[in-house]
Structures are given as C-alpha cells and as structure tokens.
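To: structure desk
From: M.T.
Subject: fold request, one chain
Message: Could you run this one when you get a chance? Sequence is below, nothing fancy, just the single chain.
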Amino acid sequence: MKLSVEMKAFQERIGHEFARPELLVRALTHGSISSPTRGDNQRLEFLGDRVLGLVMATALLDHDKKATEGQLAPRFNALVRKEACADVAREIDLGVVLKLGRSEMMSGGRRKQALLGDAMEAVIAAVYKDGGFDAAQAMILRLWGNRVTTVEADARDAKTSLQEWAQARGQKPPVYEQVSRSGPDHAPVFTIVARLQDGTEAKATAGAKRQAEQAAAKALLEALAKA
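Reply: Done. Structure tokens follow.
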C-alpha cells in the first residue's frame, strides 16, 4: 500500500516509517467512514491505551524512584487520560490526516478531543504492531516530551481536589451547573459554575463541558487558597 503525501509527512512527524502502512491507515480511520471492507481504529485504540499505560508507568518509576503508589497514580492518570492524548495529537497535526465520514467532518471532527485522543491511542498501537514495543516506547516518550518530568507531584484533577476539600470540611460534594452554551454545533462553548454547599462559586468557559467543569473547579480552588 502506498501512502499519500500527507500520510508520509505524518510518518515523519511521529518519527516512525511503517513497514506495514495499512496499519497507519487503519489507525487513522474513524468509525464514521468504516465499511465491511474498511475497518476502523477501535480495536487499535483499545491496544494503544494499554501500550501507553505500560510506557508511562515505567517512565514514572524510572524518573522518581522514591515516589509512593499514591503519588504515582495521579501522575499516571494525568499522562494517559484522553485530554493528554488529544493534546499530543494536536501538536503533531493528527487531525489533518484523520479519515472521517461526512457527518463528522461537517461537525468539526478533526478538532474533537475524543476523536483525536482515540486516534492517538490507535497510532500508538499501530506503531507497536509494526515495529514492536521498543519502537512504540521511543515514539511515546519523544511525543510526550517533558510531560513525564514536569507532571505535578500531585496531579489529581481539579474536580477531585475540590471534592476532597469540601469533604474535609464536612460539606457536601460541589455541584456543577451549566449556565450557558453558545457557538455552532461543531464548535460549542460551555460556561459552567462550580458551587460549594456554602454558596462559594466560580465560573469558567471552555469548548467542552468536561473541560469547563475542570476549569471552574480549578478557579474555585484558587479563590479558596487566596481567601
């Protein structure tokens, strides 16, 4: 199988030349364009998630030999969660070569966090199947760069930290309220308020509901730290 110019350029961006290029094509094929003769990337995504996990767990252990499991777990989660995979995908312009059906293309699928994160995991699996674990590990560590060494010592997400703050003070878990949604369907903008039982609240806006909730929780934690 011959790869397009765009696919060859993508190979260069990830630093792996495929001996079996069909694996790369499969990894970049979303279910919205699959058919009985054209498989999608879901199975590769499943495998890539596990390969990424092993590489990151090993890298974290090697980087900090004194860290406890309780310290390592949140760092690990921060490095392998879908948001992290999507961030890396954006850095290498994965969306440009993502194969999508018309409906997903029209709805801005090339920019969607979930699609980018899934495809990044599928690409990891494709490299693993094409070149083995060492090739996949080398690519992951190269693309994730200094994320492994700079991930916060306590990388729990903001919502978890805010909930623990509230529980430690005898309050009920915080609530998250969507106060507005604007923008077109393919690029929505959500505004979320995070609110504690005592009425303390903070607001944030983002292009995904989950991101807006996290941003609101972070803003509220920062306000509480200054109070």
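Reply (cont.): The chain has a mean pLDDT of 91. Let me know if you need anything else for the meeting.
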